[in-house]
UniProtKB/TrEMBL annotation:
Domain Rieske span(s) in chain numbering: 4-111
Cross-referenced InterPro entries: Rieske_2Fe-2S, Rieske_2Fe-2S_sf
Protein name: Rieske (2Fe-2S) protein
Keywords: 2Fe-2S, Iron, Iron-sulfur, Metal-binding
Species in which this protein is naturally found: Halolamina litorea
UniProt xrefs under PANTHER family: PTHR40261, RIESKE DOMAIN-CONTAINING PROTEIN
Domain of life: Archaea
Amino acid sequence: MTDGERITDADSVPEGGSLLFTVRDRKGGQQREAILVRTDGGVEGWLNYCQHWPGVSLDRGDGADIRNGLILCRQHGATFECDSGRCTAGPCEGDALDALDVRTVDGDVLLDDDAYTFDHLGGSDHDGGAEDPTSDSPFDF
């Protein structure tokens, strides 16, 4: 494990929503969007895409839709448990969101993940092109 990189303070993670941030793959340097969500146990981190269709972001920049401890995919209606990432309903039922190792220390949320490094708060710098794995389009143009 790494020593942990500060993402934000825990109070910045909204109740009933998410905080969007960007990480970089330690091997290839590719940017990936991620989200932080509140749970009964603290804060969890997930890569920001639906397991059914990786081109669909759960948080499109205005916070993920969270209801009763479940993250809702606005595209397909799939629901994911905030604390485990497990899909409880929808086309990817039984799958789970890709987790990021995060922890809270002295009020700060730290990224403590061997595969990713913190880049910045907010969405990635990509322009949504066809080569982009977070594009909302399933088609190459």
